[in-house]
Design a protein that fits this description.
By secondary structure, this protein is of the alpha/beta class. It is built from five helices and 16 strands. The chain has helices at 53-56, 59-66, 74-82, 147-154, 171-181; strands spanning 3-9, 12-17, 20-24, 45-47, 69-73, 88-91, 96-99, 102-108, 114-115, 118-119, 124-130, 133-137, 158-162, 185-189, 210-211, 219-222. It is globular. The structure holds nickel (II) ion (NI) and manganese (II) ion.
Amino acid sequence: MGIEITFLGHSGVLIQAGAHTLAIDPFLTGNPAARHTPKDIKCTHIALTHGHADHLGDTVEIARANGATVIAAFELSSYLESQGVGKLEPGNPGGRIATDFGWVAFTQAFHSSSYEGVYMGQPCGVVANIGGVTLHHLGDTALFSDLKLIGELYKPTVSFIPVGDRFTMGPEHGARAAEMIKPKFAVPVHYGTWPLLAQDISAFAPAGVKVRKMTAGETWSIE
Ligand code: NI
Ligand code: MN
């Protein structure tokens, strides 16, 4: 079927396939890189990697406006229920969730997850099978060697890899992650958004993996 990926800036992506559109980590308000406002986002599903404000972002507003189903870690899902989000699919690392477009699976991430000081469950990576394409968003994470196993299990076409350093991997560790996962394309994310994440990512040059940089607002079609 094929998909269209739109980069929302920072760590957010929108994936459209036929009648379904999945947003991952739609952080727009307060995101200096964003070219979209929450009202611009039309989606059927939202998947979240963790509860930090630069990932949870505008999820509540977008989910309510679209009647979208939100797929998130158990505790984060409970929080969203308390905020009036009606359609929720709670999960945790290791689990796969069937959806209208295919499936979503949560993987491990080495990070933290809270919102306004409240624990939001395990931070995760998100693997999504949509339009017949498998995409892998690592969330915020340090480098860990089980990324190799995750690559073997899911064989993603595209991996979105955080490379901004300080809170996640930097470009060198991000390159090592891509070499372990072995996606066809690696998209660097979570860098340059603020001065703390200013980063020369020229060292993000994984062997055997194509690097596909995306600018905020750009759309990329994959068959
Ligand atoms: Ni985070
Ligand atoms: Mn983050």
